[in-house]
Amino acid sequence: QGRGRRPPPAQGPLEKVVAQEELRLPELAGRWFLVGMASRCSYLAEHSHRLEATVVTVTVLDGQSLAISTFRRLDGTCWEIRQRYLPARAHGRFFLKGRGYGSRVDVVVGETDPSSFAILYYQKGRSISVKLYGRTSRVSDAVVDKFEQHVRAVGLSEDMTYYFPTYGFCDSADEFHILD
Protein backbone atom coordinates (compact mmCIF):
# COMPACT_ATOMS: atom_id res chain seq x y z
CA GLN A 1 0.00 0.00 0.00
CA GLY A 2 1.05 3.63 -0.26
CA ARG A 3 2.25 3.13 -3.80
CA GLY A 4 0.34 5.13 -6.33
CA ARG A 5 -0.12 3.96 -9.85
CA ARG A 6 2.13 5.62 -12.37
CA PRO A 7 0.30 8.13 -14.52
CA PRO A 8 -0.13 7.08 -18.12
CA PRO A 9 2.53 8.47 -20.47
CA ALA A 10 1.63 11.82 -21.98
CA GLN A 11 0.03 11.51 -25.39
CA GLY A 12 2.08 12.86 -28.22
CA PRO A 13 0.28 15.16 -30.67
CA LEU A 14 0.34 12.45 -33.33
CA GLU A 15 -1.64 9.98 -31.20
CA LYS A 16 -4.68 12.27 -31.48
CA VAL A 17 -4.46 12.42 -35.28
CA VAL A 18 -6.92 10.17 -37.10
CA ALA A 19 -5.43 8.25 -40.03
CA GLN A 20 -7.22 8.19 -43.39
CA GLU A 21 -9.87 5.49 -43.36
CA GLU A 22 -9.90 2.92 -46.15
CA LEU A 23 -6.39 3.88 -47.22
CA ARG A 24 -5.22 1.66 -50.07
CA LEU A 25 -1.44 1.83 -50.24
CA PRO A 26 -1.16 1.08 -53.98
CA GLU A 27 -3.08 4.33 -54.58
CA LEU A 28 -0.24 6.27 -52.95
CA ALA A 29 2.33 4.93 -55.43
CA GLY A 30 3.78 7.25 -58.02
CA ARG A 31 5.04 10.79 -58.24
CA TRP A 32 4.12 13.53 -55.77
CA PHE A 33 5.15 17.18 -55.44
CA LEU A 34 5.81 18.72 -52.01
CA VAL A 35 3.44 21.70 -52.03
CA GLY A 36 3.54 22.93 -48.44
CA MET A 37 4.84 22.23 -44.98
CA ALA A 38 4.02 23.47 -41.49
CA SER A 39 6.60 23.13 -38.74
CA ARG A 40 8.09 24.90 -35.72
CA CYS A 41 11.56 24.12 -37.13
CA SER A 42 13.74 27.21 -36.60
CA TYR A 43 16.03 26.25 -39.51
CA LEU A 44 13.04 26.19 -41.85
CA ALA A 45 11.89 29.58 -40.59
CA GLU A 46 15.34 31.14 -41.05
CA HIS A 47 15.93 29.62 -44.49
CA SER A 48 12.39 29.61 -45.94
CA HIS A 49 13.58 31.95 -48.72
CA ARG A 50 15.82 29.09 -49.93
CA LEU A 51 13.14 26.41 -50.28
CA GLU A 52 13.63 24.26 -53.36
CA ALA A 53 11.07 22.46 -55.49
CA THR A 54 10.82 18.88 -54.22
CA VAL A 55 9.50 15.74 -55.93
CA VAL A 56 8.77 12.47 -54.14
CA THR A 57 8.34 9.06 -55.72
CA VAL A 58 6.45 6.46 -53.66
CA THR A 59 6.78 2.72 -54.25
CA VAL A 60 4.79 0.20 -52.22
CA LEU A 61 6.97 -2.67 -50.99
CA ASP A 62 5.64 -5.98 -49.70
CA GLY A 63 2.12 -4.52 -49.58
CA GLN A 64 2.71 -2.69 -46.30
CA SER A 65 5.83 -0.51 -46.31
CA LEU A 66 6.68 2.43 -48.56
CA ALA A 67 9.94 3.20 -50.35
CA ILE A 68 10.23 6.98 -50.62
CA SER A 69 12.65 8.68 -53.03
CA THR A 70 12.86 12.43 -52.53
CA PHE A 71 14.47 14.50 -55.26
CA ARG A 72 15.57 18.03 -54.38
CA ARG A 73 18.19 20.57 -55.28
CA LEU A 74 20.81 21.58 -52.74
CA ASP A 75 23.42 24.17 -53.72
CA GLY A 76 22.79 23.52 -57.40
CA THR A 77 23.11 19.74 -57.17
CA CYS A 78 20.13 17.38 -57.51
CA TRP A 79 20.03 14.92 -54.64
CA GLU A 80 17.99 11.78 -54.14
CA ILE A 81 17.20 10.87 -50.54
CA ARG A 82 15.90 7.34 -50.06
CA GLN A 83 13.82 6.38 -47.04
CA ARG A 84 11.65 3.46 -46.04
CA TYR A 85 8.39 4.00 -44.16
CA LEU A 86 7.76 0.84 -42.15
CA PRO A 87 4.25 -0.15 -41.05
CA ALA A 88 3.29 0.80 -37.50
CA ARG A 89 0.66 -0.99 -35.43
CA ALA A 90 -2.31 0.83 -36.94
CA HIS A 91 -3.50 1.24 -40.53
CA GLY A 92 -2.29 4.47 -42.17
CA ARG A 93 0.57 4.84 -39.67
CA PHE A 94 4.25 4.32 -40.41
CA PHE A 95 7.63 5.00 -38.86
CA LEU A 96 11.14 5.71 -40.03
CA LYS A 97 14.00 4.22 -38.10
CA GLY A 98 16.80 6.68 -37.52
CA ARG A 99 20.27 6.26 -36.18
CA GLY A 100 20.54 6.56 -32.42
CA TYR A 101 18.08 7.01 -29.57
CA GLY A 102 15.19 9.38 -30.18
CA SER A 103 15.69 9.49 -33.93
CA ARG A 104 12.54 7.57 -34.83
CA VAL A 105 10.03 9.52 -36.90
CA ASP A 106 6.36 8.56 -36.76
CA VAL A 107 4.24 9.22 -39.85
CA VAL A 108 0.44 9.33 -40.26
CA VAL A 109 -1.44 9.64 -43.54
CA GLY A 110 -4.03 12.13 -42.30
CA GLU A 111 -6.13 12.71 -45.39
CA THR A 112 -5.76 11.90 -49.05
CA ASP A 113 -7.48 11.81 -52.37
CA PRO A 114 -4.81 9.72 -54.11
CA SER A 115 -5.63 11.29 -57.48
CA SER A 116 -4.82 14.81 -56.29
CA PHE A 117 -3.40 15.33 -52.76
CA ALA A 118 -2.09 13.77 -49.55
CA ILE A 119 -1.64 15.36 -46.12
CA LEU A 120 0.91 13.60 -43.92
CA TYR A 121 1.91 14.22 -40.32
CA TYR A 122 5.45 13.63 -39.05
CA GLN A 123 6.53 13.51 -35.42
CA LYS A 124 10.05 13.23 -34.03
CA GLY A 125 10.18 13.39 -30.26
CA ARG A 126 7.57 16.01 -29.25
CA SER A 127 7.99 17.98 -32.48
CA ILE A 128 5.29 17.66 -35.15
CA SER A 129 5.11 18.82 -38.76
CA VAL A 130 2.46 18.54 -41.47
CA LYS A 131 3.20 18.19 -45.19
CA LEU A 132 0.95 18.68 -48.19
CA TYR A 133 1.75 16.71 -51.33
CA GLY A 134 0.04 17.09 -54.68
CA ARG A 135 -0.02 15.01 -57.84
CA THR A 136 0.80 18.31 -59.55
CA SER A 137 2.93 21.17 -58.23
CA ARG A 138 -0.22 23.26 -57.66
CA VAL A 139 -3.33 22.20 -55.78
CA SER A 140 -6.79 23.76 -55.51
CA ASP A 141 -7.67 26.40 -52.93
CA ALA A 142 -10.03 23.85 -51.34
CA VAL A 143 -7.09 21.47 -50.77
CA VAL A 144 -4.97 24.30 -49.34
CA ASP A 145 -7.86 25.11 -46.95
CA LYS A 146 -7.98 21.44 -45.81
CA PHE A 147 -4.21 21.47 -45.27
CA GLU A 148 -4.42 24.65 -43.20
CA GLN A 149 -7.22 23.11 -41.07
CA HIS A 150 -4.98 20.09 -40.37
CA VAL A 151 -2.12 22.45 -39.49
CA ARG A 152 -4.23 24.38 -36.97
CA ALA A 153 -5.59 21.15 -35.47
CA VAL A 154 -2.11 20.24 -34.19
CA GLY A 155 -1.36 23.72 -32.84
CA LEU A 156 0.69 25.06 -35.72
CA SER A 157 -0.12 28.40 -37.32
CA GLU A 158 0.01 30.31 -40.58
CA ASP A 159 3.38 31.87 -39.76
CA MET A 160 4.84 28.35 -39.42
CA THR A 161 3.49 27.28 -42.84
CA TYR A 162 5.68 27.38 -45.93
CA TYR A 163 4.86 26.77 -49.58
CA PHE A 164 7.39 25.35 -52.03
CA PRO A 165 8.33 26.65 -55.49
CA THR A 166 6.36 25.20 -58.42
CA TYR A 167 9.32 25.17 -60.81
CA GLY A 168 12.94 23.93 -60.96
CA PHE A 169 12.32 20.28 -60.15
CA CYS A 170 15.02 17.60 -60.29
CA ASP A 171 14.06 14.62 -62.46
CA SER A 172 17.13 12.61 -61.58
CA ALA A 173 19.90 12.78 -59.02
CA ASP A 174 23.51 13.85 -59.36
CA GLU A 175 24.08 12.48 -55.85
CA PHE A 176 22.06 10.26 -53.55
CA HIS A 177 21.81 9.54 -49.86
CA ILE A 178 20.09 6.66 -48.09
CA LEU A 179 18.49 7.34 -44.72
CA ASP A 180 17.92 4.11 -42.81
From TrEMBL:
Pfam families: Lipocalin (PF00061). Keywords: Disulfide bond, Secreted, Signal. One of its GO terms (molecular function) is complement binding. The keyword Transmembrane helix does not apply. The keyword Transmembrane does not apply. GO terms for biological process: complement activation. This is CO8G protein.
